[in-house]
TrEMBL record:
NCBIfam families: aroQ, PRK05395.1-2, PRK05395.1-3, PRK05395.1-4. The keyword Lyase applies. The active site is at residues 22, 99. Catalyzes a trans-dehydration via an enolate intermediate. Its EC number is 4.2.1.10. The keyword Amino-acid biosynthesis applies. GO terms for biological process: amino acid biosynthetic process; aromatic amino acid family biosynthetic process; chorismate biosynthetic process; quinate catabolic process. It is an enzyme of class 4 (lyase). The gene is aroQ. This is 3-dehydroquinate dehydratase. InterPro entries: DHquinase_II, DHquinase_II_CS, DHquinase_II_sf. Gene3D superfamilies: Dehydroquinase, class II.
Length: 147
């Protein structure tokens, strides 16, 4: 199957931006690790990042056509975007929400997520490994829905 991995604003700076919070791994490294993991389970990923809300919404719409799951780190849009929530509500596959940092340990404005109302699971505070954990979960759900 195909799995879409979406990244919101400022994540293009991953590895350079506030490394004390987000670490030194870049988004290119995250994509490579996810790509390897998916391939080992017989799946393929589409990996995107944008600083523009509408682009993320358009990718969620595109995912309706042929993606089995969306793994999304909406970044700051997590806390602001009813529009991304609405787009995800129009998608039928699995949805997992990932945050590199533990948003609950940070400022109170990061404690609420619009996207969590749709997510089948949420990972926060596991660093960039959170993407791989979410992907493993998607792979096992896809394996059990095959059987
Ligand atoms: C983030 C947490 C958000 O609050 C923040 O705006 C981000 C990244 C995370 O991965 O920890 O940009 O989603």
């Amino acid at each position: 199957a195909s799995i879409m991995i979406l990244n919101g604003p400022n994540l293009n700076l991953l590895g350079k931006r506030q490394p004390e919070i987000y670490g030194h791994t870049t988004l290119v490294d995250v994509e490579a690790a996810c790509s390897r993991l998916a391939a080992s389970a017989g799946h393929a990923i589409r990996f995107y990042q944008s600083n523009r809300e509408y682009e993320i919404i358009d990718w969620v719409h595109e995912a309706r056509e042929n993606m089995a799951a969306i793994i999304i780190n909406p970044a700051a849009f997590t806390h602001t975007s009813v529009a991304i929530l609405d787009a995800l509500n129009a998608f039928d596959g699995f949805v997992f929400e990932v945050h590199i940092s533990n948003v609950h340990k940070r400022e109170s404005f990061r404690h609420h997520s619009y996207v969590s109302a749709r997510a089948d699971g949420v990972i926060a505070g596991f660093g960039v490994e959170g993407y791989e954990f979410a992907l493993r979960r998607v792979c096992s759900l896809l394996a059990s829905s095959d059987g």
